[in-house]
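Researcher: Next entry in the queue.
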Amino acid sequence: MERRDFLKTTGAGVAAFTASQALPGFAQQSADLGIIRNPVLVKIFLRGGQDQLNTIVPYRDKTYYGIRPTIHIPESESIPLDNQWAFHPALEPLKAWYDKGRVAAVVNSGSPNGTRSHFDAQDFMEYAAPGNRTIYDGWLNRYLKATANPRGEDPYRIRALAMQERLPRSMRGKYPAVAVPSNLNEMDEVLDVFEKFYGQGEPEKLPFTLKGLEKKGGPEKSKKLKGLAGTVADANVAEDPVMASGKYTISYLRRLKELLYAKPETTYGSSREIGIGGEGVAQEYPGGWFSSRMQALARVIKADAGLQVAATDIGGWDHHIGLGGLDGTLNRMLTFFAASLAAFMEDLGPHLDRTLILVSTEFGRVCAENGNDGSDHGHGGLTWLMGGNVRGGRIYGRWTGLEPSELFQNRDLNVTTDFRQIYADVLRKHMGFEPPEGFFPDFTPAERGLGLFT
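Model: Structure for this entry, 454 residues:
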């Protein structure tokens, strides 16, 4: 494996290496000024087109039951929030947080672009440039680059990471970010080899050394080394990365390994129920890969290691078949989604005040059910905000109803809140960053905002 391949697989973009955290004093301003100290943004993308109507239910709307005769959520089983909206019963773990004012949602939100293609809609949202195919850097990467410290920073501090093996497009771009391999705890041998040659300034000798190790260890050793070295996905990487970037990448991964595996029993990437908070009573998490990611992320946040942006995906929301009501696929997915996020917020403790969870999906689903207990690709959808200084305990967004004349193309929820306005409010009110002109191509966020934050 060549030097550029290693850097590519670790997801570190290094065209002009300025690894950094915020501008001096950026996240350190006094809380008296309304600026959150050391803010963290956790971006979760629900890939596939997550359904709004059975998640936050318009339980007093008779049309809802008429257009979803077999997959609706019965009023008697829903969890009322007010006189209009109710949670799907699987969201019960989030109800207490909603009542505490730590959870809010924006209905009828999403992209104004009417595409029903998952690929296009996801790209448009992650680049925050609907319909614009000339943008190739993610909106989170643009934020990281815009707030980079030109003097550089200590690579021992971690500013941006993806809690998965591939960087989402929202984090790809010129600013270096790292995706976390689930087998990071087994990468010492590969990291040692790369560190040796970067330290000596002879990265060109790496391929020969790796081949020697592979030959010495046999086919199984060779396969393992290749797997470990290539376990993390690519980002935008220059053809000739500078030496400093290679050293930084290795240091970054070693620091992550230290944080995630401080105890022998810690197993990021598994579903073992272990305590990785490092303080007090261990927080219990439900089993499963998503829960494990959030558990590991809580550890990084509580370590106060400089993290500002983290991201992860949950796929599988494309429910053309078996979306169901109380017993369908949506019920199963919302169950682990809600339980994992409730445990994550509990685990963060006081760090929840500086951590905002932002959950989006590329589009919603058709309002009426289809013939397979499911629903097809739609338009308007749902955005969640949890933690931080969100003004929770309420549902935001302009609801337009479910009559055909009130729907997009007579079938879908309208988009009445552009997702870019939500993202702009998050950057301004939570991250303390004013997006410059052009940050959101072809869109100027309203200065007043949506009132989502205190």
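Model: The chain has eleven helices and twelve strands.
Researcher: Noted, moving on.
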